Amino acid sequence: MRRTSFAHWPCSIARTMDLLGDWWTPLVLREAFYGVRRFDGFQQSLGVARNTLADRLRRLVDEGLLEKRPYQTEPVRHDYVLTEKGRDFYGVLMAMNAWGDRWLADEQGPPVVFRHEPCGHTSRPEVVCADCGDPMTPANTSARLGPGYPARLAGRPDVRERFGA
Amino acid sequence: MRRTSFAHWPCSIARTMDLLGDWWTPLVLREAFYGVRRFDGFQQSLGVARNTLADRLRRLVDEGLLEKRPYQTEPVRHDYVLTEKGRDFYGVLMAMNAWGDRWLADEQGPPVVFRHEPCGHTSRPEVVCADCGDPMTPANTSARLGPGYPARLAGRPDVRERFGA
Question: At A103, phi and psi to the nearest 5?
């Protein structure tokens, strides 16, 4: 099945999703955050088919979220290590996790909790405005045309209406 | 192609991804946050096949992120309106958007920016600890077994090692 490409949409959400490709990719990243570095480690903890895993790892390396580091020669074997770009994806996984904890956990509560070491709390992640620190919600946040929006689209009536331009 | 189900994994990230199903779903939600409420509106702005869209909307209604509200009788026509559960997904989209802005935008900058009305800044969303307000990063956050982790798995050596138990 040919997948629609979102890579060139003027939307960072669509571009992010296009890069991920499918849902295995964030789970591979989750494993990397748990400290998994080797192909067999990813394979065992995810139970994913080896060819699927090889494809997702290759994509994450090509896109610069993971880098391959040799840990053995003859034969060469690699670790897969998070880059800065990959580590920065943590916020996305934390936001997904918080939402899943709130809405999908059963009555026993969340399966996994996160301890924020600087303050010592077992805490939930929250998405806030980096300037003032208050939560960003659909009610208090509005989308505007950014500098990278394609000029050929920015004048369209539907686009102008959407962004209050 | 039969998709692996992540719904019963003891992981809120996997459960969230299972519910979403595929990448059209977050884009349908994005449109709902932009104020789109009608089938034809979603269809036009996403350019998605009508049967795919109908399926994703049905799923979002079944899962309680959108609700159908009749706006016309004979024939009955519905709006699709975000519920509290759906509105709460905003943080996930904002976190994705922030990551995409940082890592996938071209030299012109982000295509869309967000104005946080309470402080008046065009700002980036940030994922912080709800208790102390400081960023949650892979370096300062550790995962622990939560109350909803399945007891039959919690004693396994690999699980105990992963969660420092």
Answer: -115, -20
In angstroms, the CA A91 to CA A85 distance is 11
Residues of A in contact with B10 (CB under 8 A): 111-112
Q: Averaged over A117-131, what is the pLDDT?
A: 92
- Please state, in angstroms and rounded to a whole number, the distance separating the CA atoms of residues A159 and A119: 43
Q: Do A112 and B10 touch (CB under 8 A)?
A: yes
Closest by CA to A15, choosing from B115, B14, B110, is B110
Please answer yes or no on whether A113 and B11 come within 8 Å at the CB atom. Answer: no
Q: What is residue A15's three-state secondary structure?
A: helix
Q: Does the beta-carbon distance from A13 to B100 stay under 8 Å?
A: yes
Task: Give the position of tokens 């505007």.
Answer: A144
d(CA B22, CA A22): 7
**Optimal mutation site among B96, B158, B161, interface A, most CBs of chain A within 10 A:** B96
Q: Do B99 and A88 touch (CB under 8 A)?
A: yes
Dmax (CA) for chain A in angstroms is: 62
Instruction: Quote the minimal CA–CA distance from A88 to chain B in Å.
Output: 7
Q: What is the pLDDT of residues A63-84, one digit of tens each?
A: 999 999 999 888 889 999 999 9
pTM over 0.90: yes
Locate the DSSP E strands across B43-149.
66-72, 77-82, 112-116, 121-123, 125-129, 141-145
Is there a contact between B98 and A91 (Cβ–Cβ < 8 Å)? yes
